[in-house]
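Re: Re: token formats

Sure, here are both.
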Amino acid sequence: MQFTGTYTAIVTPFKDDNIDEPALERLIKSQIKGGVDGIVPVGTTGESATLDYEEHIRLIALSVKFAAGKIKVIAGTGGNSTKEAIYLTQEAEKAGADASLQVAPYYNKPTQEGLFQHFHAVACATHLPIILYSIPGRCGIEIGVETVNRLAHDSVNVVAIKEAGGNADRVSQLRAVLGNKFTILSGDDALTLPFMAVGAHGVVSVASNVIPREVAHMVRAYSSGNTSLALKLHEKYYPIFKDLFIETNPCPVKAALAMLGLMEEEFRLPLVPISKASRDKLRKTLKHCGVLK
């Protein structure tokens, strides 16, 4: 199974501190209509850190149900405890997910050998394809290029990486050691085209929560060789790519979705709504890009 293209890091809608299932269904249906290749529930953007196990598994099951086989579901099932990551991954497999996104263990800062042993154990415990997730800005560690290479050759189901370190040179290094079969996805909307220029195959996107059709169009244009159209789309929507990170993700993207009437702007502490200044700037950007009237 290939994991190239556009995958939306889907937000988790809340209402009265519960999962807002109707809002989640609307959002996933808008992704299908927008032409994305898949969704990634219960990742960073899905506020996985504030969900209990039951909610986490329920969100994956709901995502599979609402996706209805029309787009892929890559379940965020990583953790800083290997036992927890295995449990969530096995539950995601039972729920019908197409793959698992495995973030680097955060806070405890394992060595590269520890990272290898962690991901190896998860990969051995499931038949699901594993997409590694390197995001040193949140985890405090990077999944080393050699560690990725070792995992890819050791475990047949380690098939891809979401690269969110902000460094295009890493993409070149990964491509050099892993060849073309191993999939690299950008973890940053603003860097999708630069990463694809040196060998990435698409993006796990925050912006596509808001503009799924536009992000998918940009990625497909570049992949098909229409680089001028891809660049034009990048330039048009770059202000949105940037302003959706004006404060901590996913607070701005939830604010944008609320402005569009798609869900309540509700979070769980310690996340809080964005400031008035940030909200005004974001609203202005959405209007300027033609997303909001």
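Second one below.
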Amino acid sequence: MTTRPVTLGMLKESGYEILPVKDEMRRNLVRKLREREQLFPGIIGFDETVVPQLVNAILARHDILLLGLRGQAKTRVARMLPLLLDEFVPIVRGSEVNDNPFAPVSRYARDLVREAGDETPIEWIHRSERYGEKLATPDVTIADLIGDIDPIKAANQRLTFSHESAIHFGIVPRTNRGIFVLNELPDLQPRIQVGLFNIMQERDIQIRGFNVRIPLDVVMVFTANPQDYTNRGAIITPLKDRIDSQILTHYPKTLEHGMEITRSESWTVRETDGTLIMPEYIEQVVEMIAVQARKSEFVDQQSGVSARMTITTMEALVSNAERRAILTGDSVVVPRIIDLQHALPGITGKVELVFEGEQEGPLKVARALVGKAVREVFAMYFPNPLERPRRDKDKAAAADPYAPVLKWFTEGNLIELEDRMPFDAFYRELSRVPGLAELTARHLKVDAANVHEMATAMEFVLDGLHQNSKIAKEEVESHVSYRDMIGSIFTGRSLDEE
């Protein structure tokens, strides 16, 4: 392993070159692009949209504003930008602002280099130490971001308040030669936003109006929700004008991308004994809840529906299945449709409702979203139960695939399921419906020999038929029953009547 230089003279002899941070990021980005490296591992669904814009901004040496609704991975993207920095860089040892040994900017480093010359000690800092982040809140001050005069330091060192060494630096200058991220920019008071003008344009800071200017080398990255969403504030126009690139983020554009995000972020592998089986259609239902919420008339679309909703819903779903397995002693943990009732807290706390939604109530809206999600996913696997059977010479082709199941319910039979039902009782109850297992295996491609997957799949089929108004469903706390529709609600007439 090559020993790194420890003095300014050794650094000069090594021929080491220090680039401005934007040039450093650009150089490393170009190398990664040429070597076809993954730029932002773990960021899903942005490869064709956000990432190209971000690459262009970095190649252009721009400061960046990531603009999008909540839960669109803005902060996560920003936190991955340090991967484009060199792993280690040299600074003047003891510097508060990561002084470049070749061009120090603080009074401390300038004095040290002038006195020690080539013997000036240097140290190497990791790229993780060159990242600074601050959440903008209304109480953030200029002193927090830029700095202020420290009267205690001035008194201890017997300095005047106008002396540079009396400055206590804020988080931005302490991130000199690195990346500074300011989250939720509109929450910053306008007078504080004005204080960022010099950093954005002249690339320097001023403290307390004294004639002290310290040039900074820092990449500024901001995140914000769209201005028409937040009532707490806005980005003032002159500051927005100084931000070079505004990049719009978005929610997953496909169900598959959403499922991949939920899989990677949700905690589903638990420490308790038992094997977890997660059917794909259950994952699709959970993701479809968010899809339906993002176009629901009861949900505030300007607020957005965070990807955190599907993550918490999935975790609550698995937790209820885990709780049941612990209580019943089942060795296999399989989420059921009935578990979605107990996952509602993961939904109600994550959606902002409009007035009509508040009138309906968050629980009722959440149940409606779950119902729509089940119906949409059911339609991905099964023929539409509401379509009339075709008049066809081939009677087999024209037969209603749901007829045996529906006929059983019309004869007055019902299915009763309970949240804490042991698996054997759960499977036995569903198996009472003639033709249900065959219908399920044919369309969901479930192995009939795998009874754990088959049981949950059969329950999914019954709920899909309910969501298409073919059978009735009654929910009382943790108890669910499926039965025949009554009167005019039962729209599917028998083939004999046709």
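Residues 27 and 134 are 27 Å apart (CA to CA). The longest strand covers residues 218-224.
- S.
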